[in-house]
Amino acid sequence: MHAAEMWTLTQTDRRRLEAFEMWTWRRIERSAGLIKLLMRSLRSVNKDRQIMNSGNGNIDGLAMF
Length: 65
What we know:
Layout: H1 11-52, E1 58-59, E2 62-63
Antiparallel strand pairs: 1-2
């Protein structure tokens, strides 16, 4: 091949590459899970704010002082 470097992968190299790939996928999945958790939490806070700002002074039917 022109201007290309080639080498053979040993079994150890393959295992290391596979381990790195799995580590990368786990990290991506963890990040996605944290984003989902954050979005769920933000939706809950937004829902609570809408209830409090409904204008009638009541939260779930309870009178405010």
